[in-house]
């Protein structure tokens, strides 16, 4: 979900034209995004099939997020010298291994391991895919091109996740992940055939990118993401269950509300990007504040189907609207560590995923009810707001020295 402004990207023409290559990259980001978000909608069926509670089953989401946190910086550094097409294909193989293992494993612990493996290539894949997309066009079009490549993530919430939930309800969660694996195989073939054949990068200095860890503004911005986005995942992880058990919506209506959630993400990304061009700091602070209001509304109004429709749109719209501003700020403060900073932003985003999922499971297992994830999520957004105030204060202090 992060937009990267590629720096010094060598121009490489794809063998069969830009548009087929662009579609292959978008299909891949859509497929990987669906693989991540699908489990959140499948939790009721998944937990039922294994005979465990919803809160216990949510550990597979945390395992995937942990894989992203670990894999994103490691792959970004280890694969810096490889041709980007080769690196994309290798990461898709890892994605396929993890997804296929998810289907085949019989118990929760083994499935957790497979979800961890599936998450390893997640963050680095988006960063490398953005760079490959940028390499196919002239510099003046790179920003829009990167946006197109990564738009697959947003569409995965609008189309991929609801379809996966529908398939799970009628065919079982393993069938849903089998379809994702088949789609992943199609992505592998499409990128192998259509992606530009770039050369290795023997002069790449992977360790130089680790300088990002020395920059306070980078670390504080990543901490803002890691805390502030947690509420998004806390609510989305248990949204299907909450809408079914508390709002009492039928399966078809739950799928509709999931689509509304995805539309909120699309709208928030577009609006947030436009607002970030005007003022990054105000966009981040205003969005966190607004998300607190709508999360508290979730807590109070969850039993009311009519009220929940706009809330289901507005929560992701306000929080995802922060993402372009966060990435824009990282671009300003990361210096020559752009690629690693992008991967680390994915890591921070998935730390938020793990933390938000854990918090939601804790609140539910403590007997506070599904509605309690609303006020719990609001606390996380408030935490992101406060950390970003500290980020701004540190920037002013550094500028005054």
From TrEMBL:
One Pfam family from the record: MFS_1
Subcellular locations according to the entry: Cell membrane
Membrane topology category: Multi-pass membrane protein
Transmembrane segments: 21-41, 61-80, 87-104, 116-137, 149-169, 175-195, 216-240, 252-271, 283-301, 307-326, 347-364, 370-391
Major facilitator superfamily (MFS) profile domain location: 21-396
Xref: SUPFAM superfamilies: MFS general substrate transporter
Chief localisation class: membrane
Superkingdom of the source species: Bacteria
Keywords associated with the record: Cell membrane, Membrane, Transmembrane, Transmembrane helix
InterPro entries, per the entry: MFS, MFS_dom, MFS_Efflux_Transporters, MFS_trans_sf
Family matches, as PANTHER family: CHLORAMPHENICOL EFFLUX PUMP RV0191 (PTHR43124:SF3), PURINE EFFLUX PUMP PBUE (PTHR43124)
Protein name: Permease of the major facilitator superfamily protein
Source organism of the structure: Gluconobacter japonicus
């Amino acid at each position: 979900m992060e937009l990267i402004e590629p720096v010094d990207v060598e121009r490489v023409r794809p063998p069969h034209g830009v548009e087929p290559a662009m579609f292959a990259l978008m299909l891949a980001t859509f497929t990987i995004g669906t693989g991540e978000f699908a489990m959140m909608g499948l939790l009721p069926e998944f937990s039922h099939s294994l005979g465990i509670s919803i809160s216990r089953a949510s550990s597979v989401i945390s395992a995937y997020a942990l894989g992203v946190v670990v894999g994103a910086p490691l792959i970004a550094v280890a694969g810096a010298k490889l041709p980007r097409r080769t690196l994309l294909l290798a990461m898709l193989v890892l994605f396929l291994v993890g997804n296929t293992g998810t289907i085949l494993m019989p118990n929760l612990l083994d499935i957790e391991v497979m979800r961890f493996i599936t998450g390893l290539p997640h963050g680095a894949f988006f960063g490398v895919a953005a760079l490959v997309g940028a390499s196919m066009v002239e510099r003046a079009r790179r920003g829009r091109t990167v946006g197109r490549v990564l738009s697959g993530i947003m569409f995965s919430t609008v189309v991929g996740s609801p379809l996966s939930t529908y398939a799970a309800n009628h065919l079982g969660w393993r069938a849903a992940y089998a379809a994702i694996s088949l789609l992943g195989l199609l992505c592998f073939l499409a990128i192998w055939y259509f992606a530009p054949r770039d050369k290795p990068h023997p002069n790449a200095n992977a360790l130089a990118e680790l300088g990002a860890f020395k920059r306070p503004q980078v670390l504080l911005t990543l901490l803002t993401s890691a805390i502030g986005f947690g509420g998004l995942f806390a609510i989305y992880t248990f949204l299907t269950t909450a809408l079914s058990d508390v709002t009492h919506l039928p399966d078809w209506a739950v799928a509709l509300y999931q689509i509304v959630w995805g539309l909120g993400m699309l709208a928030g990304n577009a609006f947030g990007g436009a607002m970030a061009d005007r003022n990054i700091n105000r966009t981040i602070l205003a969005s966190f504040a607004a998300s607190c209001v709508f999360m508290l509304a979730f807590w109070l109004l969850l039993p009311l189907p009519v009220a929940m429709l706009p809330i289901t749109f507005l929560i992701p719209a306000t929080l995802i609207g922060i993402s372009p501003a966060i990435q824009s700020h990282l671009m300003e403060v990361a210096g020559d560590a752009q690629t690693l900073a992008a991967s680390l932003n994915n890591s921070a985003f998935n730390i938020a995923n793990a933390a938000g999922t854990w918090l939601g499971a804790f609140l539910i297992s403590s007997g506070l009810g599904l509605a309690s994830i609303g006020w719990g999520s609001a606390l996380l957004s408030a935490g992101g707001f406060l950390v970003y105030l500290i980020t701004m204060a540190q920037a002013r202090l550094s500028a005054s020295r």
